[in-house]
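Pasting as-is:
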Amino acid sequence: MIKPCILFLLLLCGQMVLAQEETAEQPLESLTELLGEEIDDSYLQQLYYLQEHPIAVNRSTAEDWQQLKWLTSLQIESFLRYREALGSLVSIYELQSVPLWDIATIKKILPFITMEEPLQLKNALRTRFIEGQHSILLRTSRVLEKQKGYNKELANYYAGSPDRLLLRYRYQYKNYLQYGITAEKDPGEQFFKGAQSNGFDFYSFHVFARQLGQFKTIAIGDFTVNMGQGLVQWQALGFKKNAEVMQIKRQGPVLQPYSAATEYNFNRGVGVTWQNRKLEVTAFASYRKIDGSSYVDTLTDDEVVSSFYNGGYHRTASEIAKRATIDYASYGGVISYKRKALVLNANALFHQFSHALQTNGKPYDLYGIEGKRWNNYSLDYSWTYRNLHAFGEGAVDKYYNKALLSGMVMSVDPAVDISLVYRNIQSAYQTLWGNAVTENTQPTNEKGIYAGIIIRPANGWQINAYTDVFQFPWLKYRTDAPSKGKEYLMQITYQPNKQVEINLCYKGENKELNAAADTTTHFLEDNPKQGLRMNIIYKIRRGLTLKGRTELIWFNKNQPGSEEGFLNYIQGDYTINRKWKGNLRLQYFETGGYNSRIYVYENDVLYAYSIPAYYDKGWRYYLNMNYALNKRLSFWVRFAQTVFKNKAAIGSGLDVINGSMRTEFKLQVRYNLN
């Protein structure tokens, strides 16, 4: 499929690469680039805020460090023990003496920490409402080509304009107080007319305060609730398997503010965390309307919910009909007991709907949630002993179906770290907002064991690897029998100096799915997939960097229906002066189809990013520019275009474009009021 001469030239270009200076996006990119999924921008907002208001090292708590997702619980406990034994650090360079903290880890956290002392709490109480930072952000974007859905002659068409609009006001004083409003209109939605007579299609607000005497946290408005290891509920950022093989534990506070524009998977109401030495109690209550489809059951004459609609789009008559059709209330709490290195939590969560949920009747959905009420309970723990950190959670649902997840991270040598996760989740176990370290999106119908290792054989060298073996005892979508699979990854990183970094990653997986052959008797067949990715990073000089990537994908290699994929890009990042900076990427991709698609992390305007999938054949380029007029007013602009080869139309459904190009334009303005 790929001509050798083209491959050689693109590989050669891919080696002319370089690294950027540390920014808030870099850790996020390293954690998401293998996942093929997008995450709301709440975490990216917090990282940028930490760059401007860094963590005070000598007054930091475990929860402060947990904001940096790439730190393991073992590393956090090691730092706290070091500071307790030896007292406050006198220099940032002393972090090199903390056990289990390597140079790569310290380099990642440097933009987010400071040795300066924070204000005392009594001073913060007087100033948190007046000395924080006010900011207003306005973003607009659109696809420049006309898409099929904007044809008013269609029976089901997009009623609004193709513009996406985002308005966000935010106030934050350090980590003590945060409040704000987010409003968004998606492309195709109306604005101050029709179904959106109130202007934006989605509004979100939140007030979030910390450290008010014995009240550790008070949340009003929109917030997320995070329990245990995600078997019951985890709504904040939680990564699945990736090259950072030690990042296998869910960690963070129970309550977190929600300021993203994603229109599902959050709570709207009140939450409180009360603390008293060893005991911590969290309680919350939430009510909001959610999207879904319903119909009247002819046997009972009751209206039942057939499915939730999590897309968040309300453009066509059919999408608008699903909007806010279900009343949804949830409430629950967490009781936490802490004693030295041991933490025990008891979790309870209750859901109630205005209409009964009903499964779709398919065999794979046999154990789906039904009825107007659902509840989950769990116990979870974490325990640190020397260089070992163990954690786990055991959960049950309304009908006492069981789920278990247990894991550990351990430093067996200054040059070797290992991680393990075992999960055994019954096929009938169900939860609404679960997000655990599992192969399935939701923690259900799965048994498996994961093992990861990091080896640092010499200065500048690091090897990350994991293997995961899993099985699904019951049926799944597109899998009409119990099935199994495996996944493995190895990444080698070489950094001979501060200017150069070479990264080579190999990933393989094999899952059983229904055979593609048209037969009356369904059977399963293997679907092996392999990928090879190479990055080389090299810093040219301050303010000017280059980076690039070459990636190859093989799907069903040497078997019927096989596909191959190839992608290469080169990108330049530059800072002209304090006012101007940006980046430019040129990318080529060529795949045999959707099964050999390749996901790529793309930089965007402030607080935004994307991980699109590329398939078919074509070119992609984008330009991002940022201009800071002064300390208060900043502008961002993004222009991106994808040009496909030999295609008369691109896209699907109502998003089809007649032509071979798709062009995106985005403009953003941020104004700091103080």
